[in-house]
Amino acid sequence: MMVNLRKFFLLLFLSFLFTNFSIAKEIRTRFGFYIDLPKDFVAIQNQNVDELLKDSDSSINKEFFNEMVAGSSKQDMNIEFYYPKKLNAELNSININLQSGVTLREIRDDFGLNEICQAYQQMFIELFKKGIRQYECKYNNNFKPKYRDVLRTKHDGSVSGQLMIQYQLDQRRKLLTLTIGCEPKNCNYMEKVAVSIIKSIN
User: Fold this and answer.
1) Contact call for residues 141 and 106 (beta carbons, < 8 A)
2) In the chain, fewer beta carbons within 10 Å around the N or the C end?
């Protein structure tokens, strides 16, 4: 009886293991590293911010955005989007941006956390042209030893009924920002996907 029970748990564990592997596919990002992306997500690659701004609505303060990124090259502002097939893609998405010329380590060395958090909230207020609440802004230690410094923030999103969660970390001496846009009911799921993407970077 004990042997059969062990076999049952072994088969259960193996089926869970293979199920987890089967729901992800490895893709090469435009930034040169690889990530595991769930099969129910679609990757939109080779798109930069200039193209996105042309298609965006008036809720983005484009003048402020242009001032904020003045001097950045198009390569710095390249962005890659991942959309869930079964959710409203207008409110639920993940994107990655890799910016050269700055690292989170440098930011952390030069500024205190309160100063960083206030700056982010103010930036989003000006960018989205409305009041933006900040729900969380703190360093996250769940990615050690691979990533020593990770900043997690949570704010109101650019549109009503949306939240925005960001993870920032250093990747190849550049600042990687992963942004999650999500409806509150989907945020746990979307963040789990995002965390698995970060952990899969290679």
Assistant:
1) no
2) N
